[in-house]
Amino acid sequence: FEFIYNYLYLANLRANWDEVKRQAEKAPQPEARRYVLPLNIDKADTGKNLVTLPYTTATATLHSDETIWLEPEVIFSGPRHAFEFPQINYRKYCGKPYTYTYGLGLNHFVPDRLCKLNVKTKETWVWQEPDAYPSEPIFVSHPDALEEDDG
Q: Cβ(150)–Cβ(142) under 8 Å?
């Protein structure tokens, strides 16, 4: 699907913006998913869901051939409302449980908003202005931050 890889070249955007938006409506919509990878596996658990975390519907099922099938929990999805390039407060929460992620919001692959997503409740906040096309977000923490999302 050549369009996905080439549409954001500046020359293509300048050539025919309306055509870019029309073609973007055909593009698949990305969604944010949570997968849970079990770390401790017992063969006695064959056929069972190995995910015991209370805050997710993601599953991991051990099969008799010793493969594990993962099914994700979709935490952000919607028509004309995709979420890409997720970022967290890595300085304080890398490798630790976190609540917020920030992403570039897409309207059919046209980046036109910034989104904040609570990965526990799935609540979202959106910044968007007419004719504004942001790039991927980078979280910069306030120097004296006490809260995860203070930045």
A: yes
